[in-house]
Amino acid sequence: MNIPTFTDVEKAHEIVQKYAHRTPVLSSVSINQIVGAELFFKCENLQKVGAFKFRGACNAVFSLSEEDAQKGVATHSSGNHAAALALAARMRGIAAHIVMPENSPEIKKKAVAGYGAKITFCKPTLQARESTLAQVIEETGATEIHPYNNFHVIAGQGTAAKELIEDKDEFDIIMAPVGGGGLLSGTAISTKQLLPNCKIIATEPAGADDAYRSFHSKKWVPSENPKTIADGLLTSLGERNFAIILDKVDDIVTVSEDSIVEAMRMIWERMKIIIEPSSAVPLAAILEKKVDVQGKKVGIILSGGNLDLGKLPF
Predict the structure, then answer these.
(1) Can you give the CATH number for the domain in which 91 is found?
(2) Which residues form the Tryptophan synthase beta chain-like PALP domain (predicted)?
(3) Domain of 132?
(4) Exposure letters 272-294 (e unless 16+ CB within 10 A, then b)
(5) Tens digits of per-residue pLDDT, 59-91?
(6) What are the φ and ψ backbone dihedral angles of 123, each rounded to 5 degrees?
(7) Is 53 a catalytic residue?
(8) 232-242 pLDDT per residue, tens
């Protein structure tokens, strides 16, 4: 199994910085006072397509050979990865074939179509998504770009933590949410290379705690019937991602739904930025005192800001 190293993150950054935003790192005096620590938020909610996913998709698309690129790229996704891949493909001038479950949120269908992707709808089961994607790839010869279990995607996601550390130097702890593990594995690769003594702590909703159980049992546990408002964190860990996480992550903790809403609201109210529930999970862990941050300098990756404003949890 091919696992990216920090050299691959550096190569990815050369590509990604040409196309992606170098997102700001923000802090809040009032939140720092509440938690008794210095928190620095890497605002990937302000990234293109509104999420860190653009970094990985961009690296994957621009790393393709000319010959492969001409046949286009393909994936199944109902969310941020679909939009990210569609935009990256448009920037390279190639086709993006996206398989989306027919019950995907309208706002996401519109976004993906708006970036010029060719959408094929399927029934909302994993089996239907995978079989429809296989059919699309057979017909088009497109290269599959998996949302997280992909070498170039992981290396691309690692550029967010690289920028955070370059911009704000030393950290005691760096935190990220975990779903499929693309952001977390990339973050871990960059952090352990640049700051070997910095702890990497991942956070997950208690109602979707497959990564927590996988990490603590050292055996891969699938995500089954997850129930959480943090819709970006529903997927099972990828194989490559899990290997990196076991090797480089210090701990994974879980948080309640109430804490996620509280943290999301705190960031909206105190920092005046819009984040989606998945992004609030690290701060939720701090508010629940699952992570001891007293007197420490902590980096948090705010993964994205895409949510349906008609369905706010507060």
Answers:
(1) 3.40.50.1100
(2) 19-304
(3) 54-144
(4) ebbbbbbbbbbbbbbbbebbebe
(5) 999 999 999 999 999 999 878 899 999 999 999
(6) -65, 150
(7) yes
(8) 899 899 999 99
